[in-house]
Design a protein that fits this description.
Blueprint lengths: L3 E5 L3 H11 L4 E5 L2 H10 L4 E4 L8 H11 L5 E5 L8 H5 L4 E4 L4 H12 L2
Parallel strand pairs: 1-2, 1-3, 3-4, 4-5
Helix pairs in contact: 2-3
């Protein structure tokens, strides 16, 4: 059985790109904002969360805080164009496994995912 990754980004093109890069080795499910990600992760167990920060509706950092209240152990990778957010107190307090800046290097992403959850 493939490990499941929840991919959360408000840009459909980013979700498609990341999903295509990962779906050979993993089951990838998608959410378009933080609220949807929170609902999905509550209903469906996931092995990894990849999330953007700046999204309409529920902000990525708010979603991470709420997800951490329910699941302390799920590895989280933040993929954001906002490099300065890496030092945000929520990011450091939420035990984020990685912070990758956009544009995302697929080799780096795949390597980090494999490091965190294997195949």
């Amino acid at each position: 059985m493939k490990k499941r990754i929840l991919l959360c980004d408000d840009e459909e093109s980013i979700r498609l790109l990341l999903s295509e890069a990962l779906n050979d080795a993993y089951e990838v499910i998608e959410a378009s904002d933080g609220r949807e990600a929170l609902k999905m992760i509550t209903r469906e167990p996931c092995d990894l969360l990849i999330i953007d920060i700046k999204m309409p509706g529920t902000h990525g950092l708010e979603a991470i805080e709420r997800i951490r209240e329910r699941n302390k152990s799920i590895p989280i990778i933040i993929c954001s164009a906002y490099r300065l957010m890496k030092d945000d107190v929520v990011v450091s307090a939420s035990d984020v496994a990685a912070f990758l800046t956009k544009p995302i290097d697929m080799k780096t992403l795949k390597s980090k995912v494999f490091e965190l959850i294997g195949t």
